[in-house]
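Entries read sequence, tokenised fold; example below:

***
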Amino acid sequence: MLTWFRRIDMSRNPAEALEVVREYVAALPSEELARLPQACRPGRIKDEAEVERLRAALVAEFRDGRQEGEALASLQRLTSLVVRASIRLADLRGQDDDGPRGDDPPPPSGKRAAPARRG
């Protein structure tokens, strides 16, 4: 899993992040896919909206479902990857907009901070 996560984290644009998700899904054994609830089985990942739809379904199933054993492990693996991809895609969208991202400091408000009091 760490290699897949690293590849997502190193994606330079949404197309690269989507390609990692597509490759991961294509590499899943049919037995692993069969353990997933129907609503969580990934279809063709066409675009970012499909990743978001899958993320929502996986998170809802993880939160509300009653999976156990290997079925739960399969759900956890796919959920982890898709959530990470969703976060990376959002980060890349923020970079495309040239706007502030979650880790960027807020823009200056034009006001200067009051000097610290010395006591």
